[in-house]
Q: What sequence folds into this?
């Protein structure tokens, strides 16, 4: 870039040193402004990327889920104790299915006389409601009663989280073998490691995973020898004192492989017990645990169990609410804008209305919630928590936005179009509806969609009209109890279990997908409208 | 009211008879005042416009000639602040009478504006819009005929006949203005008002429009506002000179340009002010 410098000789009367100095200053100001602009855009892009990366990073684990594919004997004595073969009764008999799954698991994994605690640990691999799809499938296919069926049973959220690398830090060690083993699975096993080096590695892993900054933190080690899992109680040099956890109830052979799984926390300090980890590892080795796409996130409704909770009810609720909002806000908004812009006389009253519409757009959304609760629910007696009321409240909320955007679009239509239409003898209404409105349509559409997008993400007013209720069923219509996506996100984000975190992020992604879809529709419609001209 | 209208119609015909052999009067304006809020834009103007001729309004900017032109098809009604008093008779009927709908009036008095303002629709729809809303065509064939006839009269047919579905805004400025003239003709008006129709056009397009105006004179009563003395001299038969909202002089174009009665007219057309 060539810029005039101070030592350029003054070639004309207007190229004085003074003028060159001013010019330099102006160029500097221009460069500065460009820099500010780029910096602003850079900050915006960084913020957006950070947001997307953190949401997608968090949500990624919610889109897949670990399930146990289990050969389940559908026994009539459990699922249909009365022998009525009534599909509805069978589908409702969740405890029967649950008992059946528990008993068959116990047959496979527990000894003859297990303690209550061990039983509870085993049953804790699953949630009680994990059998719901099995009950549903059986009710639909009665002939499967009495046969063996393979089902994908959802694992409990903590087990799922453990498999995804959560719950606690861990380290796997491949040890070279054992030199001697004695004792029995019932009373305790003494195992001597093959080499001194193995003992040193195990010890090193235990110390490195013990966190100094956390009180009561002591690492634990699980030892797999052959087909059996043990918990390490004590270690003295190469000699390890072990208790039996799971797997084959025999002492390992002399040539059995030995592996150690070192966990940063002892089982008192984590949500998954040693025995549950051992069972999970055994099932995983058998290839019976697999990762599947978490379709229940889209097909299920809300649940108190994060692994079963889905967005279906909230999505349908949001769609119904948006429908009511659109039906209220868009026609009323457009007609109000057309009247104010094209027909209303300019006087004190109309300017008062104008000012108030602009003010209304700035009213906090929660105030609209109060209005909705007072007018629609208390005064008109409409039911609480229904999309109709939610849609009406959100419709009132976005009405000013739609009016303002529509008026801006109408003002942007050149007046020559109006005079042209009037000039050939069109009436005022004809000139507006034949010429002005179609020309303003793309702008009106954009404004309306922006308003709708705002409504889609709105939470506060819906809390006040009771749309926070726990809704476990997909609503049938605008008069059915329901919730909406942003409220669901808010509720999930306050859940206590760690598994709600990815679930919340996944729900946010569902909401974002909706927003992107709406914008896409707006762009497509706009293109089509513009092509007509 | 009706009696009044008839009375005036009577007088109109009387005036007609007094005209010495020239064309009949189409529009008769009497004592027109126009106010924008409190400001008076037109002061008591009375004017008779002949049928099948071109009448030019000249005068410096802001002298009220456009405002006066817009009285003839009541376009001033669309401006809220504007108030028109006085009477304008078209074929003996007072167009300011409340019983006359401006929409119907405007189908008889077409208007062409300063800047070409075709609808952002196809050429065909631009022409067809007026006839459609007035119900002038029953069926596609009739509409096709109206479109072709209007475009032919506006001298645009040969240029656009192969692309009637192209948007009107894709034409050149001169073509757009002729399209607007064709649009005005399509509703078969009797009077065509033109508000500086050539001010946004280049000399060649201007020449074409002027030629077209000269041809249209055969069938229509044309009233045009212009800033170009030469244009007024070339195309008009009658010229009215406005100044500060008053009609200073009105008469045959030839006389106004060669031997004006008022000194101010003389000053204006010779370029001494304005």
A:
């Amino acid at each position: 870039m060539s810029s005039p410098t101070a030592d350029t000789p003054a070639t004309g009367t207007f190229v004085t040193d003074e003028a060159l100095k001013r010019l330099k200053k102006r160029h500097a100001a221009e460069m500065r402004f460009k820099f500010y602009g780029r910096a602003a855009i850079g900050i915006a892009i960084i913020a957006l990327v950070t947001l997307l990366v953190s949401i997608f990073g968090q949500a990624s684990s919610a889109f897949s889920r670990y399930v146990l594919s289990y050969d389940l004997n559908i026994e009539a004595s459990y699922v249909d104790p009365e022998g009525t073969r009534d599909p509805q009764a069978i589908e409702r008999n969740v405890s029967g299915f649950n008992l059946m799954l528990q008993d068959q698991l116990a047959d496979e994994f527990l000894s003859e006389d297990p303690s209550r605690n061990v039983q509870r640990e085993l049953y804790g691999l699953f949630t009680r409601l994990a059998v719901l799809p099995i009950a549903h499938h059986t009710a639909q296919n009665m002939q499967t009663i009495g046969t063996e069926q393979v089902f994908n049973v959802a694992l409990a959220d903590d087990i799922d989280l453990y498999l995804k690398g959560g719950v606690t830090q861990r380290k796997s060690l491949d040890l070279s073998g054992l030199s001697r083993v004695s004792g029995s699975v019932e009373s305790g096993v003494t195992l001597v490691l093959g080499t001194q080096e193995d003992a040193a590695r195990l010890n090193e892993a235990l110390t490195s995973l013990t966190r100094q900054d956390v009180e009561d933190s002591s690492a634990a080690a699980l030892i797999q020898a052959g087909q059996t899992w043990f918990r390490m109680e004590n270690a003295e040099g190469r000699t390890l004192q072990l208790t039996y956890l799971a797997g084959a109830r025999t002492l390992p052979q002399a040539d059995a492989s030995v592996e150690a799984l070192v966990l940063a926390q002892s089982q008192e300090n984590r949500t998954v017990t040693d025995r549950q980890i051992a069972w999970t590892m055994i099932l995983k080795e058998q290839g019976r645990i697999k990762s599947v796409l978490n379709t229940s996130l889209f097909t299920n409704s809300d649940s108190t169990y994060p692994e079963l909770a889905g967005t279906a009810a909230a999505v349908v609720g949001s769609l119904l609410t948006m429908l009511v909002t659109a039906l209220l806000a868009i026609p009323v908004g457009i007609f109000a804008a057309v009247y104010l812009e094209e027909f209303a006389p300019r006087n004190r009253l109309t300017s008062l209305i104008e000012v108030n519409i602009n003010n209304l757009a700035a009213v906090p959304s929660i105030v609209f919630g109060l209005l909705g609760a007072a007018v629609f629910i208390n005064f008109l007696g409409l039911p609480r928590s229904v999309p109709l009321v939610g849609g009406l409240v959100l419709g009132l909320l976005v009405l000013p936005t739609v009016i303002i955007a529509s008026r801006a679009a109408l003002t942007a239509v050149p007046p020559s179009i109006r005079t042209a239409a009037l000039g050939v003898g069109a009436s005022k209404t004809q000139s507006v509806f034949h010429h002005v409105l179609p020309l303003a349509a793309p702008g009106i559409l954009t404004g309306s969609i922006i308003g709708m997008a705002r409504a889609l993400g709105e939470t506060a007013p819906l809390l006040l009209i009771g749309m926070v209720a726990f809704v476990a069923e997909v609503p049938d219509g605008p008069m059915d109890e329901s919730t909406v996506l942003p409220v669901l996100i808010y509720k999930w984000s306050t859940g206590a279990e760690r598994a709600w975190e990815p679930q919340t992020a996944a729900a946010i992604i569902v909401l974002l997908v909706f927003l992107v879809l709406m914008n896409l529709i707006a762009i497509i419609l706009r293109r089509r409208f513009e092509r007509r001209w | 009211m009706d009696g009044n209208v008839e009375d005036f119609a009577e007088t109109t015909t009387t005036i007609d008879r007094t005209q010495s052999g020239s064309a009949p009067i189409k529009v008769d304006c009497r004592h027109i005042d126009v106010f924008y809020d409190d400001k008076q834009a037109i002061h008591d103007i009375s004017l008779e416009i002949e049928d099948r001729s071109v009448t030019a309004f000249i005068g410096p900017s802001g002298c009220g000639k456009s405002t006066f032109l817009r009285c003839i098809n009541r376009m001033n009604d669309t401006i809220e602040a504007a108030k028109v008093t006085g009477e304008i008779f078209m074929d003996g009927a007072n167009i300011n009478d409340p019983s006359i709908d401006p929409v119907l009036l405007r189908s008889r008095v077409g208007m062409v504006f300063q800047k070409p303002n075709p609808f952002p629709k196809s050429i065909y729809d631009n022409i067809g819009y007026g006839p459609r809303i007035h119900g002038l065509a029953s069926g596609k064939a009739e509409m096709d005929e109206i479109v072709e006839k209007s475009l032919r009269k506006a001298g645009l047919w040969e240029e656009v006949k192969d692309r009637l579905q192209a948007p009107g805004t894709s034409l050149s400025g001169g073509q757009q203005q002729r399209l607007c003239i064709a649009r005005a003709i399509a509703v078969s008006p009797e009077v065509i008002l033109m508000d500086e129709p050539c001010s946004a056009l280049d000399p060649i397009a201007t020449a074409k429009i002027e030629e077209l105006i000269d041809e249209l004179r055969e069938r229509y009563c044309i009233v045009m506002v212009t800033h170009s003395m030469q244009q007024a001299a070339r195309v008009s038969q009658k010229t009215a000179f406005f100044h500060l909202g008053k009609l200073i002089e009105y008469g045959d174009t030839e006389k106004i340009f060669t031997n004006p009665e008022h000194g101010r007219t003389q000053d204006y057309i010779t370029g001494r002010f304005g």
About this structure: The first strand of chain A starts at residue 64 and ends at 73. Chain A has a mean pLDDT of 86. Chain A has four domains: 26-59, 63-162, 168-270, 308-529. The interface with chain B takes residues 345-346, 414, 416-428, 430, 434-435, 439, 533 of chain A (CB under 8 Å).
